[in-house]
Amino acid sequence: LLSNFISITDNEDKGIKEVLAFFGGYCEYSVGFTSSTIEGSKQYFELKLSQCKTLDKYKKTAELPASHMAYLFYKNLNDEEKKNYAEIHSVLIFNNGVEKTYKFPTSDLDLVIEKMPIVHKIVEIIKQKDFISILPILNDKTLHNYDKNQLVTNLGIADTTFGNVTEEGFKPFGFKFAKSKGGKGYLHISGMIMRDKLNNEFSLDLDLDTSNHDIYLIDYQY
Prior knowledge:
- The protein is an alpha+beta fold.
- The protein has five helices and nine strands, in the order βαββααββααββββ.
- The relative contact order is 0.12.
């Protein structure tokens, strides 16, 4: 269900419908402005999700679905529409009435969109079982200290448990920007790899530099 308080473009409508297709529930939307003496006036688009049956399981990690809401909406906009907004706001209303608001600068969302093909590339490599070709882009020294050869070996071992990657491939769940203990920033993208035997949680830690395609860590869970 959509709340039709404002006039929106076809792409904005498509983005909202993609949020609803993923989460279900009820989605209100609005456009707002923030103003400060330093930054001036900024326009934002707000999505408010409620009556979502699956939302409560994310109470402790609410930033994840909130970020995915913003991503699903924003990636549907064309270049001119993206210029209209400085931020995308995601408001989550849990079934107990608790409300949480998250604000995502569109510059961050632009970076996520630019980095997402790296995630899909790795999933395609896993699908083809060409694990060894992941080695050149794995950086096991800068952010996390581990043995990348062992990690790649473990990917092959896990593949026998999970089964083959299906055509659906990678299903993103959200992202966050974080810093290592050494203070280096990175982008964490998480989701699920869809399999014919057992789907598995999957995440990547990526460099913030758009020209750097290094992968700092690949994490599997199930």
